[in-house]
């Protein structure tokens, strides 16, 4: 069977590369289209002539995917459409619409192979676990979840060659890797809380590849593609430092040695672990601060992390020359203009290379969603199809001084970098939201991506062109 993965933006989707490896190993044929890089999408799809078109979607992005699927069904009614990813996992009911034939919930490697096998042999696919399937008569089969695969080493290395058709992706000298799946934490704004509920009783949620697998995967990639930098995209890379991360870093130093970046939590760090990261080639980290107000961070966001821990970790990172991007969220339930301003001032005190800041989004499955719905902080009748694609532009949550907080989020990175602008920013946020603030935010955000990821200018300009409509829901 021939499957086409269709995505909007020119970034490597690591989940897709894993699925491609599994379906190719099973004898199926995989293709990929980046819609923003195609002049004529219909012609591009016809050229490949797939049996199945797959979309991996998050909430907000699913609106673009549904619009594309609608076009596909008009152009090629015989092609099956399959939706996976976080939105499909939390909202499998999307299959009740006219343009979705199949939804995959949770891990998709085994389910997708079984689905393609069944289509190829003419067998009945309606009983495959992890899938909700609509048959030709419109009957929907809602199958249960399968046990979580505990040994991630059973899967082949991700197949990133699916992106080779696009040189501006293939020739980038930065690549992402993950050492495992899941997260032990329960931050209220994160999808992991809801996903743990869905997968309860199906096996250990947080799992990791063996150290040998991780190193061999990177070596395999380096044998095919040159790299200047790599990124470990685990939600919290440093978990299990003594038993896993420390020996992994030792092996990495011996066999890889390329500069890399990671995501961390301050309370998991010690000076020893920061030193080990630096000595192993870590040049940058992304660290969650979320709020400068400890009540907001711990009682509302469930981060359970003190300002002192963050300051101490930042001191170690600066001592060992590691760049830092902080992650922050404004507009959570209970947020006031004063608490939002505390977040800005705390970040200015930390003085990171970049202060990343978004607006709260009560996404499906999150504790924040439960909280805002309980307190009536959403617009009447709001549903998942009203989420914006980006969490940078607006928030549906109704908080005090929402206009000022939204403006502050746009000016946040600039004000952290130049604290002397604080008096100007305090007055500027009183104005109506406007395109100037949006432009300043996007410009600073783009600059930070290039700096934190050590991206070459030409690559950055290419990515900028192919993500020119990133903040909009559709290209049509």
CATH topology group of the largest domain: TIM Barrel
DSSP summary: helix tally: 18
Mean pLDDT across the residues is 90
Task: Measure the end-to-end span.
Answer: 29 Å
The CATH superfamily of the largest domain turns out to be: Aldolase class I
Main β sheet profile: 7 strands, mixed
In percent terms, what proportion of residues is strand? Answer: 15-25%
- Going by CATH, the architecture of the largest domain would be Alpha-Beta Barrel
Strand numbers in spatial order across the main sheet: 2-1-3-4-5-6-7
CATH domain class name of the largest domain: Alpha Beta
Low-confidence stretches: none
Number of domains: 2
Structure summary, number of beta strands = 15
Shape: globular
Summarize the amount of helix as a percent range: 40-55%
Q: Please, could you describe this protein's structure?
A:
- The protein is of the alpha/beta class and 476 residues long.
- It folds into two domains: 2-142, Rossmann fold (3-Layer(aba) Sandwich); 173-454, Aldolase class I (TIM Barrel), CATH 3.20.20.
- Helices cover 41% and strands 15% of the residues.
- It is built from 18 helices and 15 strands.
- It has helices at 14-25, 41-48, 61-75, 86-90, 109-121, 167-170, 192-198, 211-222, 241-255, 271-280, 294-300, 307-319, 337-350, 367-374, 402-417, 422-428, 435-452, 457-466; strands spanning 2-7, 29-34, 52-56, 80-84, 102-104, 131-134, 140-142, 174-177, 180-181, 207-208, 229-232, 260-264, 282-290, 323-330, 354-359.
- A seven-stranded mixed beta sheet has the order 2-1-3-4-5-6-7, sandwiched between helices. A six-stranded parallel beta sheet has the order 8-11-12-13-14-15, sandwiched between helices.
- The longest helix is centred in the last third of the chain and has 18 residues, at 435-452.
- The chain is globular, with a radius of gyration of 22 Å.
- The mean pLDDT is 90.
